Predict the structure.
Amino acid sequence: MPPLSQLHQDIDDHVQYIRQDQPDWLCTKGCDTCCRQLADLPQLSAAEWFLLRQGLAALPCEHQHSIRNKVAALPDQPPSPITCPLLDTTTGACPVYAHRPVACRSYGFYVQRDKGLYCEDIKLRVTDGSLANVVWGNHDAIDQRLATQGDTRSLKAWFETED
């Protein structure tokens, strides 16, 4: 299994583990809070960009064009929070969900406290006791594995390499 596929499987296994013990976990279909409140654009490795491009290529041409326009319109240093340019804001769904980057796959289930990268809504539920015995994944370990997946750039920078 390719390293990125193995990483996706490991993340999916951890997500499933959390969900089986916490059936009311917030990160489910229909929750797009993190997609609408990004601190910055996701950083993608070359392997992630290759996969994401496959998902984008499967979209109807007008949808691809719309996404490209949203990305191109972003300033180099967008003010935060920003809405992910891939998000379909009408439906609250990601049109490339199966091809989404690791940052999106792991958010809400993994944490980097020193960088403030965790879901505040989940943290509040853990703090008030409505979610008990939560075992967050270690996002630093994910970053170490991603470091082997090629050059890392922002989503906008990857799109600019296509022009």
Notes: Residues 3-162 form one domain.
